[in-house]
């Protein structure tokens, strides 16, 4: 049976990766930070018995930390989904909480795969559209973004220390901000650049691809203890009908992907030779007002949405032709994504308030 490793297996995206892999007939090993998290996955999904094995990893970026798992696993494919997220306000140390876990986490996966993963054919990394744009107004107006676009840099030889987060902020300056969102954006650029630098310098026996999603919506299937602690993108979505806003807020980042489509792209990367050693920009237009208008059609949320604000929506100009042509994934409509997400959150409100 084909064997895949999924990192951060109890996370929002990774739980969908695990689920689609098992549905497709793969044997899956999933890394989790505690044995309790692995037990939750199996308890919540009885059909995974005999098909899913949790592997406890307390430190993803210590040198050699993945060696034993790769020696024992005999993996064919790796999906590196785990990454530091910006949803913990106490994570204000740029290097400790973001840069080291993101960069070294990627590199340690690559190194262990090279040393001990003789059967590995492909590694798919979940990156972010933040490596292309942080949502600056100049990227929204008059600029076409593609898979080849990197966020603006100050020097002609970009490095983790010179990449811009916005027209004013570099990772060196991010250390002074004590802001998780700023740190996340800077670290993700450095982490993806580290992947491509490794591939260029080491020419590993396996191929690599990176996926660059924007906001990730869709129904969460991970274990949720309370709707007060949903994943970051889901929290943003939930804020449009949980009383956070009286009026529909301005669009923060006007692009989204359904988590189910994102995961289908993860799987397409390992079965599509043309995906080898490429990065893929992906995303569809949305606005907060469009989401609110769809939520008005659902009886349970109709009275809970904010009032219209009259904001004029802004959209990125995304060229995803290569992604659509190579990966051939059929997208859920925004209406389907919104309704499926809302219904799942309403269910969680009842069982995990």
Question: Can you walk me through this structure?
Answer:
The chain is α/β, with parallel strands linked by helices. Helices cover 40% and strands 13% of the residues. The chain has helices at 12-23, 35-44, 67-73, 94-116, 137-140, 171-174, 180-202, 232-238, 259-271, 288-295, 299-302, 321-327, 334-351, and strands spanning 3-6, 27-32, 52-56, 77-80, 122-126, 144-145, 207-212, 215-217, 255-258, 278-281, 284-285, 317-318. The protein has a 7-stranded parallel sheet with strand order 3-2-1-4-5-7-10, sandwiched between helices. The longest helix has 23 residues, at 94-116. The model is unreliable at 153-168 (pLDDT under 50).
Tally of DSSP helical segments: 13
Q: H/E series, N to C?
A: EHEHEHEHEHEHHEEHEHEEHHEHH
Mean pLDDT: 91
Task: Flag low-confidence runs.
Answer: 153-168
Radius of gyration based on Cα positions: 20 Å
Strands side by side in the biggest sheet: 3-2-1-4-5-7-10
Q: What structural class do the secondary elements suggest?
A: alpha/beta
Per DSSP E runs of 2 or more residues, the count of β-strands stands at 12
Q: What profile does the largest beta sheet have?
A: 7 strands, parallel
N- to C-terminal separation? 40 Å
Which range does the strand content fall in?
5-15%
Helical proportion, percent range: 25-40%
Shape: globular
């Amino acid at each position: 049976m084909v064997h895949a490793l999924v990192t951060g297996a109890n996370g929002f995206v990774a739980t969908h990766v695990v689920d689609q892999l098992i549905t497709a007939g793969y044997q899956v090993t999933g890394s989790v930070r505690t044995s309790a998290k692995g037990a939750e996955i199996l308890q919540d999904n009885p059909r995974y018995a005999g098909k899913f094995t949790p592997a406890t990893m307390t430190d993803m970026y210590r040198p050699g930390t993945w060696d034993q798992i790769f020696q024992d696993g005999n993996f064919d494919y790796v999906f590196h989904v785990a990454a530091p997220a910006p949803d913990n306000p106490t994570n204000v140390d740029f290097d400790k909480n973001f840069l080291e876990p993101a960069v070294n986490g990627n590199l340690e996966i690559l190194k262990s795969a090279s040393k001990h993963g003789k059967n590995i054919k492909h590694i798919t990394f979940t990156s972010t559209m933040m490596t292309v744009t942080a949502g600056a107004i100049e990227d929204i107006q008059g600029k076409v973004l593609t898979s080849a676009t990197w966020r603006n840099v100050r020097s002609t030889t970009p490095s983790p220390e010179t990449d811009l987060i916005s027209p004013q902020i570099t990772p060196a300056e991010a250390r002074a901000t004590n802001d998780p969102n700023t740190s996340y954006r800077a670290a993700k650029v450095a982490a993806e650049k580290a992947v491509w630098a490794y591939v260029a310098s080491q020419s590993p026996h396996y191929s690599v691809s990176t996926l660059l999603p924007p906001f990730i919506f869709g129904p969460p299937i991970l274990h949720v203890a309370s709707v007060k602690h949903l994943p970051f993108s889901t929290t943003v979505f939930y804020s449009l009908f949980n009383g956070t806003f009286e009026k529909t807020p301005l669009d923060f980042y006007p692009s989204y992907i359904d988590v189910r489509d994102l995961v289908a792209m993860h799987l397409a990367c390992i079965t599509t030779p043309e995906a080898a050693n490429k990065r893929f920009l992906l995303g569809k237009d949305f606005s907060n007002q469009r989401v609110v208008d769809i939520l008005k059609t659902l009886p349970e949320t109709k009275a809970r949405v904010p009032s219209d604000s009259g904001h004029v929506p802004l959209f990125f100009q995304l060229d995803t032709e290569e992604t659509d042509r190579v990966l051939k994934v059929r997208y859920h409509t925004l209406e389907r994504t919104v309704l499926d997400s809302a219904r799942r959150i309403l269910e969680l409100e009842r069982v995990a308030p």
